[in-house]
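Entry 14: structure prediction run for DUF695 domain-containing protein. Input pasted below.
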Amino acid sequence: MSAIEYTNDGFRLSLEPLEIEGRTSSIAFSIEIELKTKPDDNPLSQSMKFNYPHVWIETDELDRFEKELSQIQEATLRDMSDYVLFAVRGSDASTELEINPRDERMSSSAANINSILLLAPRVKKGLANTFKEYPKWW
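Run finished. Output C-alpha coordinates:
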Protein backbone atom coordinates (compact mmCIF):
# COMPACT_ATOMS: atom_id res chain seq x y z
CA MET A 1 0.00 0.00 0.00
CA SER A 2 1.31 3.40 -0.89
CA ALA A 3 0.96 6.54 1.19
CA ILE A 4 -1.41 9.40 0.52
CA GLU A 5 1.14 12.19 0.14
CA TYR A 6 0.99 15.84 -0.89
CA THR A 7 3.87 18.34 -1.04
CA ASN A 8 3.93 22.02 -2.01
CA ASP A 9 6.45 24.80 -1.28
CA GLY A 10 7.85 23.28 1.93
CA PHE A 11 4.51 21.85 3.10
CA ARG A 12 4.06 18.08 3.30
CA LEU A 13 1.11 15.94 4.40
CA SER A 14 1.57 12.17 4.48
CA LEU A 15 -0.83 9.41 5.52
CA GLU A 16 1.15 6.16 5.58
CA PRO A 17 -1.07 3.05 5.88
CA LEU A 18 0.05 0.70 8.68
CA GLU A 19 -2.79 -1.82 9.08
CA ILE A 20 -6.17 -2.66 7.54
CA GLU A 21 -9.19 -3.91 9.46
CA GLY A 22 -11.73 -5.45 7.10
CA ARG A 23 -14.52 -5.93 9.67
CA THR A 24 -14.73 -2.20 10.43
CA SER A 25 -13.54 -1.07 6.98
CA SER A 26 -10.82 1.04 8.56
CA ILE A 27 -7.15 1.77 8.10
CA ALA A 28 -4.50 2.63 10.67
CA PHE A 29 -2.27 5.45 9.46
CA SER A 30 0.85 7.22 10.56
CA ILE A 31 0.13 10.86 9.72
CA GLU A 32 2.87 13.45 9.35
CA ILE A 33 2.32 17.14 8.73
CA GLU A 34 5.43 19.18 8.06
CA LEU A 35 6.17 22.77 7.09
CA LYS A 36 9.58 24.29 6.38
CA THR A 37 9.92 27.88 5.23
CA LYS A 38 12.80 30.20 4.53
CA PRO A 39 11.83 33.55 3.06
CA ASP A 40 14.27 34.80 0.40
CA ASP A 41 14.85 38.14 2.10
CA ASN A 42 15.23 36.77 5.64
CA PRO A 43 18.08 34.70 7.11
CA LEU A 44 15.69 33.05 9.58
CA SER A 45 13.84 29.85 8.76
CA GLN A 46 10.86 28.16 10.34
CA SER A 47 9.99 24.51 10.61
CA MET A 48 7.25 22.49 12.24
CA LYS A 49 6.51 18.77 12.25
CA PHE A 50 3.42 17.13 13.73
CA ASN A 51 2.93 13.37 13.89
CA TYR A 52 0.04 11.07 14.71
CA PRO A 53 2.01 7.79 14.91
CA HIS A 54 -0.95 5.35 14.84
CA VAL A 55 -4.50 6.52 14.21
CA TRP A 56 -7.48 4.54 12.90
CA ILE A 57 -9.71 6.11 10.21
CA GLU A 58 -12.75 4.52 8.60
CA THR A 59 -12.74 4.32 4.80
CA ASP A 60 -16.14 6.09 4.75
CA GLU A 61 -14.48 8.99 6.60
CA LEU A 62 -11.71 9.18 3.98
CA ASP A 63 -14.38 9.30 1.24
CA ARG A 64 -16.32 12.02 3.12
CA PHE A 65 -13.14 14.07 3.66
CA GLU A 66 -12.25 13.80 -0.04
CA LYS A 67 -15.73 15.03 -0.99
CA GLU A 68 -15.55 17.96 1.47
CA LEU A 69 -12.16 19.03 0.09
CA SER A 70 -13.70 19.35 -3.36
CA GLN A 71 -17.13 20.72 -2.53
CA ILE A 72 -17.14 22.96 0.53
CA GLN A 73 -14.93 25.60 2.14
CA GLU A 74 -13.97 23.51 5.21
CA ALA A 75 -13.00 19.83 5.32
CA THR A 76 -12.27 17.94 8.53
CA LEU A 77 -10.63 14.55 8.96
CA ARG A 78 -11.72 12.56 12.04
CA ASP A 79 -10.44 9.38 13.63
CA MET A 80 -12.69 6.45 14.62
CA SER A 81 -13.37 8.09 18.01
CA ASP A 82 -14.75 11.10 16.09
CA TYR A 83 -11.90 13.39 17.15
CA VAL A 84 -10.87 15.95 14.53
CA LEU A 85 -7.27 15.30 13.47
CA PHE A 86 -7.05 18.36 11.25
CA ALA A 87 -9.24 20.78 9.35
CA VAL A 88 -8.56 22.40 5.97
CA ARG A 89 -10.21 25.74 5.16
CA GLY A 90 -9.85 27.36 1.77
CA SER A 91 -10.44 30.84 0.39
CA ASP A 92 -9.29 32.81 -2.64
CA ALA A 93 -6.45 34.27 -0.57
CA SER A 94 -5.06 31.25 1.29
CA THR A 95 -5.51 27.74 2.63
CA GLU A 96 -5.57 27.31 6.38
CA LEU A 97 -4.75 23.94 7.93
CA GLU A 98 -5.58 23.58 11.62
CA ILE A 99 -3.87 20.69 13.37
CA ASN A 100 -5.36 19.11 16.48
CA PRO A 101 -8.16 21.65 16.98
CA ARG A 102 -9.47 22.09 20.49
CA ASP A 103 -12.42 19.80 21.16
CA GLU A 104 -15.09 19.98 23.86
CA ARG A 105 -14.31 16.36 24.83
CA MET A 106 -10.68 17.13 25.66
CA SER A 107 -9.62 17.54 29.26
CA SER A 108 -8.67 21.10 30.15
CA SER A 109 -5.65 19.73 32.02
CA ALA A 110 -4.37 17.63 29.12
CA ALA A 111 -1.32 18.74 27.16
CA ASN A 112 -2.54 19.93 23.78
CA ILE A 113 -0.68 21.41 20.84
CA ASN A 114 -2.86 23.28 18.39
CA SER A 115 -1.39 24.87 15.26
CA ILE A 116 -2.82 26.80 12.35
CA LEU A 117 -0.74 26.85 9.18
CA LEU A 118 -1.34 29.51 6.53
CA LEU A 119 -0.60 28.01 3.13
CA ALA A 120 -0.96 28.98 -0.53
CA PRO A 121 -4.54 29.15 -1.87
CA ARG A 122 -3.90 26.24 -4.27
CA VAL A 123 -3.07 23.78 -1.45
CA LYS A 124 -6.71 22.86 -0.71
CA LYS A 125 -7.32 22.01 -4.37
CA GLY A 126 -4.04 20.09 -4.50
CA LEU A 127 -5.06 18.05 -1.44
CA ALA A 128 -8.44 17.35 -3.04
CA ASN A 129 -6.73 16.03 -6.18
CA THR A 130 -4.29 13.92 -4.14
CA PHE A 131 -7.10 12.19 -2.23
CA LYS A 132 -9.18 11.79 -5.40
CA GLU A 133 -6.30 10.16 -7.32
CA TYR A 134 -5.32 7.80 -4.50
CA PRO A 135 -5.95 4.17 -5.59
CA LYS A 136 -8.78 2.98 -3.36
CA TRP A 137 -9.26 -0.73 -2.68
CA TRP A 138 -12.36 -0.30 -0.52
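Notes: Residues 95 and 122 are 7 Å apart (CA to CA). Will compare against the previous run tomorrow.
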